[in-house]
Predict the 3D structure of the following.
Amino acid sequence: MRSMWKGSVSFGLVSIPIQLYAATENKNVSLRQVHVADGGRIQYKRFCSVDGEEVPYSDIAKGYELPDGEMVVITDADLAELPLPTQHSIDVLEFVPLESIDPIRFDRTYYLEPQKNAVKPYVVLRDALQKASHVAIAKVAVRQRESLALLRVVDDVLVMTTMLWADEVRVPDFPFLHEDPPQVRAQEVTMAGSLIDSLSEPVFEPEKYSDSYREALEAMIEAKAGGGRTAGAPKQGEKAEVVDLMAALEASVSAAKKTRGPAKETKKAAGDGKAAAKKPASRARRPKSA
């Protein structure tokens, strides 16, 4: 990981110098646009729509188009003059329970590494957050954009997740919300609950799942690069249209119990055993702060 931003976490009169690292990465397979006849890359040139001349990158600025079509040109110098107090600081504003924040507001996640002279206050804030079972709400500016953010603890590291502003989350206003709801039988809700129970696990384990499309694409690229033939994806049978909701729910519950029932109980018991074995180790992992 490479540090992408340096600043400090500020709460009250405490300032903790930190370095910021992207906590996630995109694993999509990158494909280029090419000429199908010979594989030559397709290139784009930047040109001005007014004079038709090609424009070097150094002469490109930002612009805001007004309703009448007039363009307001904004240079880097103009942006540098804007007040941005959170440009090099993560300013903590308040502390709230994590459950009070809807995940729809989450944007990007970053790891925070303390600089050498700031390990102690970093650990103090980390341990205090864990003890309080709260997250910190803050404001921060990364790449000339100010965002709300939350700070929490993951694997003994402070993690910052930027959040959308209130007016960036759209309010759903679909027609069905204004219509009379369909008649739902209590048995249907109960059976749906049984299906949820049949497919429930004690914890989320992301390692169980994989990107099958990316794996197939990588295999196809490898085969083409080696001059071999690629195997087509197996055809999937079309799913029958659901006519009786209750019958579909009952069939789903039955299928889930057959495929997951015994394995689920075994896994749950094993998980409980692992948790019990790990519990003492987690207490001894870190000495208490003075």
The helical segments are 76-80, 119-132, 186-198, 212-225, 245-284. Strands lie at 5-11, 14-22, 62-65, 71-74, 89-96, 106-114, 135-141, 146-154, 157-163. The first strand starts at residue 5 and ends at 11.
